[in-house]
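agent> fetching stored inputs for the protoporphyrin IX containing FE docking request
agent> found them:
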Amino acid sequence: MIDYLFVAAIKEPRSFIQDGIKFPDLIHALKPEPHNEIPQAQSAHDTFWDFISLSTESAHMIMWLMSDRAIPRSLRMMEGFGVHTFRLIDKKGVSRFVKFHWKPVLGMHSILWDEALKISGADPDFHRRDLFEAIESGAGPQWELGVQVVEEADEFKFGFDLLDPTKLIPEELVPIQMLGKMTLNRNPENYFSETEQVAFCVSHLVPGIDVTNDPLMQARLFSYLDTQLSRLGGPNFHELPINKSIAPVVNNQRDGHMRSTINPGRAAYEPNSLGGGCPFQAGAKMGGFVSFPEPVDGAKVRDRSDSFRDHFSQATMFYNSQTPIEQEHIIEALRFELGKCEFPEIRERMVGVLEQIDAALAKGVADGLGIKLPVKLKPPMNRQVPADADAARYQPTKSKPNPKKSPALSIIGNLVPGVKTRKVAILVADGFDAGQVKTMINELTAAGAVPKIVATHGGMVDGMKVDFALNTVKSVLFDAIYIPGGQASVATLQLHSAAALFVLETYKHCKAICASGEGAEFVQTCLIKAGVASRATDKVFAAANGVVISEDEKPKAVAAQFIEAMSQHRTWNRVKTELVIA
Ligand code: HEM
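agent> prediction call returned; pasting tokens
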């Protein structure tokens, strides 16, 4: 479950909920349902959507979760966010608000929903393997660290509350200033010791950074340590090698379960005279941590600020900022998720929420679910709660002014072209054209891509090591496919329906396809049979659709066209193509 959160939350710049006290409810709703322990790893079930449809503060997060951002091509190709608004405090003690961002150097890229479903069966470790292999190969996944800085005086100049963790600051309003770069250059030697036992504690702050009154952050400050104390077996988990401070720790903590440091001296308290007064707490002048002295005025109550009651404006902004293809993906994702809910009233209520975000979005989803619009919801959102102040505090108000669009939120609209670390399947059987394959491997490798030989059998094929036997992989595990010539090779591929399916699924998922010599004939036959027909044989059509078909050109020229097609990531004009797959 925490892994799910890692993926869901870290790569999204806002949260599902506004207040940490709702965290257990969110997790209980998302978990496998108590009566049957299903589903194990999906949000497509009733309790999750019941909660979400009644917690409209989640509307913005849901747009992200149902968008392409939630199905990245790789962990190396997704953005990361600090989510909360933090403080940066300079040497003079002046505080500014800050949002932290990680931008992947390879750019953002996503896969299709259909691929995600298939990948989870074909290789449940797809993302873990991808990251491990990229680091191992020396490709060094990189992210740039950036900050959006807001002067304290500007806190109220936005149409939303800076301390509301369900909101982001559009990059167009406050540009991101890049500060540095992180490169992952080493894998753990031992996964358990170096990863499972890590304790990231959000209350561990360094001088210069402080938290704000964001109520979600406040809950996290105690919750992580509380969990780590039991997860890692007691108060001395910071002595495990992976958690141990590199600088010597000089404090008055002693003893406790599994203590390994042997502290000399008799004085473990402050003030003392027996230890010469040491250790003592370092103040600001000595570089010690000092909390930002924020003036506070007002009644201390458990309530939500009125400024937290705008639930929809940024959900609408996110949806508006997507390209038509990305909007269609959100609609399809919601149809899938809500289509799996058993209770019609949950589906309806959720469509009612979507109506508050965008009319076309709600209609698209409602059509897929067979729901008539407008949905009639009884206030408060059909919820059986007593009519007291509590109920009122969760009710959304009218949306506040926000930018209508933030172009930075689209993935397709911000494509970073390139083929570095892209996995290419070279589909062969005995008797392939060795010259073509050699040239293709050389050219792809020089461009930074990762060619893999996929053959109809394992072991060796014509003296070349087979990376994967065809029956062990699926097209969804690769970014592109190349089918070289060689009469015998192609004749064997024709006998394997898995080879034709490989080509067709690659086509359906809008990925680059290249074929030369007799391989070209094979690809054309597959596409003709699938109903993309005569057009597949037309070179102009092929080029416009990311298909490089060449019966005669020089292998280097073919490779160059293929690399160009791959660098576009996907050929989106294929997305509507219906394939006849017999
Ligand atoms: C912005 C919202 C949040 C983000 C981005 C976030 C992110 C994360 C991440 C990345 C982890 C580590 C996952 C792992 O090691 O596999 C984690 C763990 C955890 N989170 Fe959160 N979280 C958020 C909100 C919350 C809230 C509101 C609570 C509780 C009120 C909470 C409680 C926990 C706990 C108890 C752990 C386990 C800590 C441990 O055992 O080391 N989180 N969270």
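agent> quick read of the result: The chain has three domains: 2-248, 312-408, 417-574.
agent> awaiting further instructions
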